[in-house]
Amino acid sequence: MRTDPVVLRAFLRMFNLLEAPDSLMKNGEVVSRVLAVFNQRESRPPEEPVGPDRDSLFTALDPA
Q1: Share of the chain residues as helix, strand and coil, in percent rounded to the nearest 5
Q2: CA distance 8 to 34
Q3: 60 pLDDT band (50/70/90 cuts)?
Q4: Domain region containing 17
Q5: Residue of 26, 30, 54, 64 with fewest CB within 10 Å of its CB?
Q6: Sequence-ordered alpha helix ranges (H) in 1-64
Q7: pLDDT per residue over 4-49, tens digit each?
């Protein structure tokens, strides 16, 4: 989803109820883009973590 802006936009519109819940599956362009991204999943490098790992978080939150 994060690799294709059209898919992300369609998902967010559905998630925020700006589109009907079944709108993703009815949109042929979105479905084909989802399948294309899914088929390339093994060739992409792993995504960077969004936040700190558990130990780093606890270290940052430790008041002492």
Answers
A1: 55, 0, 45
A2: 10
A3: very high
A4: 1-39
A5: 64
A6: 5-15, 23-26, 28-39, 54-61
A7: 999 999 999 999 999 999 998 999 999 999 999 999 989 988 888 8
